[in-house]
Prior knowledge:
mainly alpha
Amino acid sequence: MNNIIDIASLSDKAILQKIGFFIQQIRIxxxxxxxxxxxKAAISRTTLSLLERGENITLVNLVKILRILDVLYVLNSFxxxxxxxxxxLAKGERQKRQRASKANTxxxxxxxxxx
Length: 115
């Protein structure tokens, strides 16, 4: 839980730098140069360098890099695990929600019945 609090308190720039450092360390561990990785991922070396420095790149390029480094497992945290409600369990039904909805904002005032 401490890691969640730490990451939530970071600025966007700090999070990008953390991602860039992760990519850089995996690349170095695998003994791959920036040029080799960029060529395998079909991106420019400049784009890879930007990522490693914590600059903005597109998500598509990030996914390409993660795939080449064989670390797509880091995206497993994005899997959504829905827990059925007790009523759904009792009824034996479980439908996936298709859209979000706002709570009913109309409050019924039972004190004034309009008589």
